[in-house]
Amino acid sequence: MGPSAMRVAGLGRRLAQLGHDVEDYGNIPVVQPENITDPGSPKARNLAEIAEACGILGELAVEALESGRTPLVLGGDHSIAAGSISGVSRHFRKAGQKIGLIWIDAHADMNTPHSTPSGNVHGMPLAAIAGVDPCELSSLFAFQPKVAPANIALVGLRDVDETERVNVRDTGVHAFTMRDIDERGMRAVMEQAIALASDGTAGFHLSLDMDFVDPGIAPGVGTAVPGGGTYRETHLAMEMVCDSGRMVAMDVVEVNPILDTMNRTADLAVELVQSAMGKRIL
Ligand SMILES: [Mn+2]
Question: Is residue 282 part of a domain?
Fold first, then answer.
């Protein structure tokens, strides 16, 4: 329902207003979770269905890049990033190039089926991208890691599981918590994140989880955590991404209209995409 909510909020029209030639590839066919009778292992529920959808999504991302477009991927939960980033990485890999990744999120999404307290695969996609686990996702397109941990920046962390911390530390990804944003400011944090994700890469993928934003202004997300990014901080991050000229693809995930109020989270998501894709105040 998240993609529909963002379409209803005028995503296509509002990007066209910025001068973009927008083509909507439509929804990826996925089995609806309420129709899945056997979710598989309780340590990674619906993993087979998620991996299949991620494979299809990855292929579509390649197709978009090959036709000279910038993939903008709408979720859905964050597990889709295992598909979109795999496709983007595969595309650049064919030309002998690497990509970086900026992951803006309240959570690290670096659990594995071994470490997870919940069994939610949407808590695992970054572990897969970094080449760890679950192997159904990390082995997509038969290469790993999809992004070298040295080129991965996590921004906005404020809720990391005890068992997940080890994965964040051991992989060598760069993590910027809300405390870093409080102490150093969003500008300094994003400057460093953009530099790390751009170092030796063809550009970076931006994966924006709407639960990064404070739930006071973005209530329509699955796992809301207090103390998130403000309206201005989040727009600034998007504007800095745009100014860098290095973003090659973007995800916007976790918009959940069932939990939202009058579609305001979807509307904010569209605004943020606009800022990342060229909207300026002056
Ligand atoms: Mn996430």
Answer: no
